[in-house]
């Protein structure tokens, strides 16, 4: 396996493990749901590295389709490397806009992408897939990173999106008419793309000149180039013409016996006069009811960049001369991805959300097919409320001026808005600064120890119970108060009050005053806060 070398690689290879878990703080006024929930449609405000990590406890292995549209690194997007990696060289990169003159431009981009791709992979379901928009600036480096993180055996395809409808005559060399969409499955053996709906143009080639009761059909070629020992024989047409055999260098594609059977069943077309080269009929009713996805996505089918600009301007009342957001994708492009890669109840994640096109496409497709797909969007820029969330609020509730009837009436749907809060660092637990709330720490220890979803409503704080996993009932003895925490421990008294039963108990506490034999008898596995949490997580993440 050959891996891409770039400056900073050694520092970012395991950076995703060192990123602390952050609290997720609901901002109810910005969402559309009465009660904010991590199980709702989500818009998360914050850097996606920390946000993806914060989503792990709830979404690990749950996301069916990821679409990301990261900076293409063209040199004029104004992005800056901002990950707080422990390396003097990289600390020096922080906050500096990556422009064309920057000789470490590609290194920075790879350092930014690698840990994010690693976390994104953790979030995917076994039968899920990731779609990444990119252009030639970083296409080849992206492919290498994706091979490394997802495995080259899980590469599915690179689709070409024809993004413009007319060539740019001012181009220096070639007019660049396309972007790429790079597609990898989490597991190529398990991921199966959906067939796309057939188009009218495809169906229109099926006709029924002989009024066959089986319905419209199209003629197939009887001759093929593949060598076939039984495919050489003469044929006499019903009109009397004799055909000595297949054209030179080809073979009839069926044996003589099969040919006669097909003819007896009215499945051979001999032309109006009965003297054409015979053609087997392919009936529309017998072809696959959908079409397999292809790698060329034309603007007629999935829209172009002008469409996306018009779309966003019409939704947000932007002045068209005002380039508030210059790189939206058309919702029809994302819809194509959703059609290929989601079921009606899938979770869809976009961690470079921009103008919220992915949420728009999810809501539109749900409305069209009665689906219940959910979206999770992450955006770090200031416009996350005024642009990302505002677009979703408007398309959900309805836009009176929209030409499209369903947009006018509103696509429906709600979402919860979360902001990344404080990091939960083990150091802060030790020294008492920024102690996380009981519920936050419960989510953290439950997930890190069990790898299973944490359900906050299961907490019974009176008995320190925080949830049930496949193997354990899990307990957390903790208060977000340094004074109380100092005196908290798994004592005889506390242990006796834990619910009885045959299930094994996993108990997190600052310390314990019990011997091993007692713990064994009471089926208790003790985990000291906070070091074991960290170790357990590292084991899980490997
Ligand atoms: C090319 S745009 C995506 C456009 C989007 N597909 C659309 O249709 O509107 C990339 C977006 O990713 C966001 N972004 C870049 N780095 C990020 C990060 N580290 N965390 C969260 N968002 C980020 C940028 O602010 C920008 O809005």
Molecular structure report:
With 542 residues, the chain is α/β, with parallel strands linked by helices. The protein folds into three domains: 314 residues, Rossmann fold, CATH 3.40.50; 87 residues, no CATH class; 117 residues, no CATH class. 32% of the residues lie in helices and 20% in strands. The protein contains 20 helices and 23 strands. The chain has a ten-stranded mixed beta sheet with strand order 1-19-2-18-17-3-4-6-5-16, sandwiched between helices. Strands 20-21-22-23 form a four-stranded mixed beta sheet. Helix 3 runs parallel beside helix 5, helix 5 packs parallel to helix 6 and helix 11 packs across helix 12. The two termini are 19 Å apart. The C terminus is likely disordered. The structure holds S-adenosylmethionine.
CATH class of the largest domain: Alpha Beta
CATH superfamily of the largest domain: Vaccinia Virus protein VP39
Instruction: Kindly give the count of domains.
Output: 3
* Radius of gyration based on Cα positions: 30 Å
Shape: elongated
Task: Indicate the percent of residues in helices.
Answer: 25-40%
Query: Which secondary-structure class do the elements indicate?
Result: alpha/beta
* Main sheet: strands, sense, barrel: 10 strands, mixed
Spatially, the strands of the biggest sheet line up as: 1-19-2-18-17-3-4-6-5-16
Q: Distance N terminus to C terminus? A: 19 Å
